[in-house]
Design brief:
alpha+beta; seven-stranded antiparallel β-sheet; about 625 residues; six-stranded antiparallel β-sheet
């Protein structure tokens, strides 16, 4: 039932306290995001990483503050349903002319579900779907900036206009040579308009805030000509001396944008008055990118979770296939299942772990939290974490139910929880990740197509050989990027890595990760005698954090073709000295550069070859 009147003073006061709680949250969130500009200008890289990590906790802190206040001042959990129905209506009224209504609705849901019994989780009490539109929201205050700026160049002054576009961000640090950099930018962009008619609407649109992440700032915009829109981004970095800025590359096209905004990268810091306008602009550049992933990329993770769940329920309503055990080698720690028609996997922590695994549920959750808060450098998949998730029982195969009952019975409930006659599968704790092709399956497909057979000269075998080489090279690149992020994956088997649709290798099994700086990298000691040499057992002492890189080979490189490719490109990964050298640099405070684009895209000005930032 919906409220038929608004006569409760308590309901209005509760609604006002909730909107004040949200406004406080977004004010703090935005302030921290805006400070990224100063941290960039002062090259405060540890501060930037610390702020990115700490900002993730802001939302839960504000939800707790607000719910505690409502309980303390209004005994909110004891209010009858008629009052809570009015609370929602008052709250809707307070969102008229709000600049972040979709975020405020999600905040309302978070606070309400923290206070109320689950029987209240229905349309009358929470925002099951958006009530207010986010279209055409604008801040009309005289000093407010628009969400994006438009520039109107001609073919003859585009470089000058592009230069002004960069200067308009007001960075308090000089460029090494902005005229040179914008000439390099035009060297990439101008050929895209060769033999193309310039239409009357020819323009450049650029989002008003720079996108800050780690040691970079990104100008994000699009070129519009007729019905064609070309998305682009300009990474702005420091030179090696960290005295001047320069534009490092031009990223353009939808694929480059998808990689830049990948689910495997850390969240951006962006000063946004109207976040929905930024998401709408970004979706015009990446129409296949789900809105939930864009909100996540902007650091608005709870909104991303909310939108994901809405998309998931919508998909369930419009599909009929069943959840199944996910293809691939089963893990010892996680039970993984998926819905074939839905591009995500669902992961449940098992109740017990066979030897040699020595861990616990809390330790595993701690590892996943570490990854959530860490710089994922494009090599660790982001996860959505949910509690008490309900699925229709009819959509689960009996085989999958038996698997959960066997390995994670403490996490499973099957009941008609809502009393509507429909059985549900309720999982107490679930991680959800983007689905990827497991790397071992990707390589096996290449083997099956003749990629490892040098005698097979068919076109199919050649493509398979290229696939095999790409997978092995990317695997090594992923490990080196993880080293740069101070992450040792622990279990390095191929099955713990996946291939994204853009061909990137991403790590997704976190139960054994450690910081590189916590590991002890050692060479295998020389055998003391022939008996040691012939022994099948380890005859030397091994500490709990000891790592012997030269022993990776037998587990990973049994196939001679794989070994040949790996040794050609990544032989250093089998040397303890390589790992130790990078550990030492991290301990000395060095922050490696890991670029969200190929090295081939980088500008290398003639004066700056030796000034390129350090990277692995």
């Amino acid at each position: 039932m919906f409220a038929t009147r608004l006569d409760s003073t308590a309901a209005y006061e509760i609604a006002k306290a909730m909107i004040n709680g949200f406004n406080r949250h977004y004010r703090l969130f935005r302030t921290e995001s805006a400070r990224a500009k100063h941290r960039f200008e002062t090259a405060d890289w540890p501060g930037q990483q610390r702020a990115q990590r700490e900002r993730i906790e802001f939302y839960d802190m504000r939800v707790r503050e607000c719910s505690n206040r409502l309980q303390r001042e209004f005994k909110a959990g004891e209010q009858p349903m008629e009052i809570w129905q009015q609370v929602k209506l008052h709250y809707i009224g307070l969102l008229v002319d709000h600049y972040q209504p979709e975020l405020a609705e999600t905040f309302f849901n978070s606070v309400t579900t923290k206070i109320l019994h689950r029987s209240y989780f229905e349309n009358s009490f929470i925002f099951f779907r958006p009530v207010l539109s986010t279209e055409y929201i604008e801040n009309s205050a005289p000093d407010a900036l628009p969400s994006y700026r438009a520039y109107y160049p001609t073919l003859y002054n585009m470089r000058e206009v592009m230069q002004q576009t960069v200067l308009d961000f007001g960075l308090h640090c000089e460029f090494e040579d902005l005229k040179r950099d914008t000439a390099l930018v035009m060297g990439v962009i101008a050929p895209l308009f060769d033999h193309v008619k310039i239409h009357a609407n020819f323009q450049i649109q650029v989002l008003t805030s720079l996108f800050y992440r780690n040691k970079g700032a990104y100008l994000v915009g699009k070129l519009i000509n007729g019905f064609i829109e070309l998305p682009f981004a300009l990474p702005i970095l420091y030179n090696k001396a960290e005295t001047h800025l320069r534009i490092d590359a031009v990223l353009h096209g939808e694929v480059d944008m998808h990689v830049l905004f990948s689910f495997a990268r850390a969240y951006f810091m962006v000063d946004m008055d109207i976040p929905s306008a930024y998401v709408q602009f970004l979706r015009s550049m990446m129409p296949r990118k789900p809105r939930n992933e864009l909100y996540n990329a902007l650091g608005l993770g709870k909104q991303g979770k909310n939108l994901f769940y809405r998309d998931f329920l919508y998909h369930l309503r419009h599909s009929s296939d069943q959840f199944r055990i996910a293809p691939g080698i089963k893990g010892m720690v996680m039970l993984v299942f998926d819905l074939p028609s839905f591009p995500y996997v669902f992961k449940v922590i098992k109740d017990f772990y066979p030897p040699p695994k020595e861990t616990s549920r809390e330790q595993i959750k701690g590892k996943y939290l570490l990854v959530k808060q860490h710089d994922r450098v494009g090599r660790m998949a982001d996860t959505l974490e949910y509690s008490a998730v309900a699925f229709p029982r009819s959509r689960f195969t009996d085989e999958l139910i038996a698997e959960i009952e066997k390995f994670a019975p403490s996490q499973l409930e099957i009941s008609d929880r809502d009393g509507n006659g429909q059985l549900e599968v309720i999982l107490k704790h679930v991680y959800i990740e983007r689905r990827m092709i497991p790397l071992n399956i990707y390589l096996q497909d290449a083997f099956d197509a003749g990629g490892a057979d040098p005698a097979n000269t068919s076109a199919k075998a050649q493509r398979a050989r290229e696939q095999l080489e790409h997978g092995v090279i990317e695997y090594g690149n992923a490990l080196k990027d993880l080293i740069a992020a101070n992450i040792f994956p622990g279990d390095m088997l191929w099955k713990n890595f996946g291939i994204t649709r853009h061909g990137k290798v991403v790590f997704y099994d976190y139960d054994e990760i450690e910081y590189i700086t916590d590991c002890v990298f050692r060479k295998v000691p020389k055998a003391r005698n022939e008996e040691d040499e012939m022994s099948g057992e380890v005859w030397y002492t091994v500490g709990p954090k000891d790592v012997f890189p030269e022993t990776f080979g037998p587990f990973l490189l049994g196939n001679p073709v794989v070994r040949e490719v790996f040794m050609k490109h990544h032989a250093d990964l089998l040397e303890a000295a390589f790992w130790q050298k990078n550990k030492d640099r991290i301990l000395q405070g060095h922050l490696f550069d890991v670029f969200p684009y190929d090295q081939s895209k980088r500008f290398i000005p003639s004066i700056a070859t030796s000034e390129m930032p350090d990277s692995i």
